[in-house]
Amino acid sequence: MKIVVLSGSTIGSKTRTAMNQVMKTIEEENPEAEATLIDLADYDLVFSDGRDYREYKGDTQYVAETIMDADALIVGTPIFQASIPGALKNVFDLLPQDGLRDKVASILVTAGSTRHYLIAETQLKPILAYMKAQIVQSYTFLDERDFFRKEIVNDDAFFRIERLVEDTIVLTQTYKEIREAKEAEYDF
Predict the structure, then answer these.
(1) Which InterPro entries does UniProt cross-reference here (predicted)?
(2) Nearest to 76, CA basis, from 2, 21, 152, 150
């Protein structure tokens, strides 16, 4: 199983800290999974211009192809100005309209305030659904109280991250089994 852990911002530390914990959880709980961390701060992506994702070069090509090859996508996003970052939206714009078909997507949100709790519901889930992802319905929301000096300090936050990873993997395995059973029904 290939999992892409996407830290969807070019600035800040909370989302990257949380996604590092996601990676650690995957490695400890599911060592057979092939997990790749993509932190947008580490890549130089061009803006989407509408061409096929395979026509891009360099970092842009790597990010797009890695996501397209994955079975699951765990999207980490901060909330800036009551919205997801433009860098994260650009990643989705690089992919085809049904680029997340047959992929499971889950969400981890970091925010400075609990007032931004519904941003994932109103902005990120619709994008993932439009791109045909199977969405893990419960997402993980971390706010200012869960962090101190670039570390997660809330035990409940660790539990919620573990649950997010578990739900993502279980749903990915379940959908894979369903697709395999459906394909086995055909005689050719």
Answers:
(1) Flavoprotein-like_sf, FMN_Rdtase-like_dom, NAD(P)H-dep_FMN_reductase
(2) 21
